[in-house]
Structure formats: C-alpha cells, structure tokens
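In pairs, describe these two lines:
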Amino acid sequence: MNKAEKSGQFDVETLRKQVSDIHARGDTAEKADEAGSINPYALQIAEQFREGTHSPAIIIGQFRLFEFASQFVIGLLAFLIWPGDGSTETFTSRVALAFFISAFAVGSLQISDTYSIPALRSRARLLPRIFLSWAAAFLLTEMVFALFNETSWAKINLHLAWFSVAGLFLIGIRFLVAYGIRNWARNGVMERRAVIVGGGDPAKDLIRLLELQPDNDIRICGIFDDRGEKRSPIMVAGYPKLGTVAELVEFVRLTRIDMLIIALPLSAEARILQLLKKLWVLPVDIRLAAHANRLRFRPRAYSHVGTVPMLDIFKKPIQDWDSVAKRGFDIFFATLALLLLWPVMIATAVAIKLTSKGPVFFMQKRHGFNNEVINVFKFRSMYTNMSDPSAKAAVTKGDPRVTPVGRFIRKSSIDELPQLFNVLRGELSLVGPRPHAVAAQAHNRAFGDVVEGYFARHRVKPGVTGWAQINGWRGEVDNDDKIKFRTAYDLYYIENWSLWFDLKILFLTPIRLLNTENAY
C-alpha cells in the first residue's frame, strides 16, 4: 500500500471513476489549455496543497541555532550556579569560553554529519557519534583556554559538571527532535511535495522506488502526462493522472509544490526539451529521474532522494535560508527608507490632494510571485476620471491623462514610494523584476506573447527596483525590443542573485533615476 492510500487521501476506485469521467468529457486536453485553467478534479486536489510546509533546510538550520544557544546558556548557568574559586576567571573570559565551546560543538556535530533529516530522525544509532563530537569540541577548547588560565580543583569540578549536564541535554534533545520529525513527516508538516511528469511504467517504477526509501520525505501529489490512456493509464501505482502538462503549469501556480520529477529516459531528449520549454517558468526544482538510465555520470552530477539518483535540471531560485536573508534585507531597508522619506511622501500626498480631485493612492493589479495577482500601491498620477487601472494603454510622452503633479512624481519615481508598504506586507521585494500590470501590452500584444519564457520572471518575488531599471530599461514600452531586453535583464538577475547584488542595485537606483529619458 502506498503513502497516499495509507493517509486516506486517495480512494482509488472513486478516483478512477472521477478521472475517467473527466477524460470522457474531454476536459484535460485542448479545452483546458485554451481556457488557461485546469480540470475540476485537478482543482479539487490542488485545494489540498495550497498551504506551504516547513522546509527541511530551515528546520535543520533552526535546530543548529537552538543547539548553539542552549549549550551557551548551559555554560553560563554552570558558572552562575557553581562559580568556583573565581580568582583567575573574569565574567568576560567565562562568556568567551562558553561561546567558543558552543560554536565548536555545533561545528563538530556538522563535520560528523549529524545535521541531516535521516540523522535527526534516528534515535540511538548516532548517539555515540554525537557524544564523541561534543566531547572533542569541549576538550579541545578547554585545552586551548588552559594555556592562558590557571587550573584548580574547583574549576575542574565546575567544568566536569558543565560537560556532563550539557552532554545529557544534547542527547535528550536529540530524542525529542527524532520524535518530532517523525511526527511532522506523518502529519505533512515537514515534507517535500512532488509531481511526477510522465506516466506509464517509468512513473510506476519511480514511485515504487520512492516508497521503499526508509527516510522518504517526498509526498507525491499526482501525475501529469500529455499522452492518452493507452500509453499513460489514468492511475499509476495508486496515484491519479490529474491532467496534461499545460494544466500542470496552472496546478503548480495554485499550490505549494516543491519539485517536479520527470519520469522519462534520457533517450527521450526531444520530449524532455519540449516539457522543459513549458515548465522552466515555474518556481520549483525540476529533476530528471536517473534510476533507470544506463548512462552514468560522475557521482557529483546527481542529487538523491534517499538512494534514488536524480539529475538537477532547474533549481528553485532564492529558497530556504536565502529567502530568509532576503526577507530580512527587505524589512530592514524598507523600514529605513520609510523613516527617511516620510516627509517626501506626506508632501506628495498633500500636493496630489490640492491639485486634483480623487484619492491620494492608486491601486493596480499586477503579477506577483508565481503569477499571483497582487494589488500594488502607487501615488495617483492621473486624473481620476481618466485613470486606467488595467494599464492596457501605456502612458506616453505628454499624455493628457497625467496631472502636472503626476508628471513630476512619475519622472522622479516618487509615485512608486507607497510600494514600500507592499514590501513590508511581503507582496514585493525591494529588488527584483518589476511587476507589470496584468493587462500590460506592447503593440496590442500581451508581454507573454512577445517574449518566450516571459513568465519565468515570476519565479521570484517582484521588486520596487531591479537590474533592468538601473540599466535604463524603465518607462514606456513602445516596441517589442524593450520588453525583450527587460526580460533578459530580469532573468540574469534571477540566475545571479545574491545579497551583494541586491545591495548594489539598491544603492545605484537613486543615481540612475536621474536619467528620466523614458519616464513619462
């Protein structure tokens, strides 16, 4: 019995009938593709996966920090409860000793490979390794500090008590974490959600292999395949085929999926390339199952789910701790910007209110992360009765819809300052591809029709400023080349992201805004 059947998520016979009915109505092929949506059954499954899960990488990182902090606190408490003779040790030296022992303990446990999900799941198997790592870090630090401090029996007794209590705590907390991780895995709190692309026997063999992994944290959410029932059955190893690859794109945008696994042999090169042209725009890991391939690469070329080898084709950009760092960056600098620029924002609001009728702020629907539609705040720059919330008609030079105040704030980009509130709400990042209006067009063609792979810009959260903007690609889009170059710069940013890159773009933005050539 597979994981899906155990959890009661899929009633095989019922689902077989539902999927058959959907296929009989023809809802999963061209009709769904033309509608830009997914069939009702896939939509029903998507509802179960709208909420995100806890990333294993984040949990492991948090546990490292917890072990460091707990060992540091135990060290300080040992000195406070049993201060020893106090003749040669100052409070500063004791804090330093506790800090270094805690840091070296975490480093030693990392080197010993005890910070991984399989290691944290095990209860007793790795306890000797954990204890030896702690003992090595403790003794090494003690030996170094002993060179600069006198030793007494009182100090030895103190440090032995510290070593014993901290060691017991370390072992005890590992038992609790092992129980917690096993429980989270069963309850779906900590899992990696995957969709299989491709059906038939290759998908069946892959699913069986994944289910055999003892520490498997992969949850298969369904199968998508363009082929008909003769070559790709509607049920594979107890999991339903939810639709076509075109429907998969929409399915991933509605859910919190972590990984797409392509279950095709390397020899199907043309079909794999065809799939990738549709799927690379999604903010997920895309892997090619390599368990059945006879052609073998170097071990470093593979990633693994348990012991199942995978070839990484695309990796989700800015994930796990990178996303945490970027979010911290956004909150810090957005708050700082609001503290510095609030007089400018108040003056702008007053000027708008005094010179034209209507609200101070203007909200526009734009594409956000993973193609989600978000409401972006701006200062109103147009006459209320002439405003264009859809932005279908781009603003041009001398546009009569723009107010005198609006013309100034658009040229100086002051109209964008309210988007700092979008940053604090988590809808935008300070730096990223600029969010375009949902109905934005170039020569009466949607941007997605002009540039192949345009929606790959949405693999990361959009930004208030971006790499394209500081390189001169801002303002009116009056020809196809402008949106093509913007997209190219945005994709370069996504592939080369770092906090230093964000910092560079952020500090160059005020300088490059002096060039108002294309801003109307």
Q: What stands out?
A: The first strand starts at residue 192 and ends at 197. DSSP finds 19 helices and 14 strands in the chain. The longest helix spans residues 153-187. Confidence is low (pLDDT under 50) at residues 1-16, 22-36.
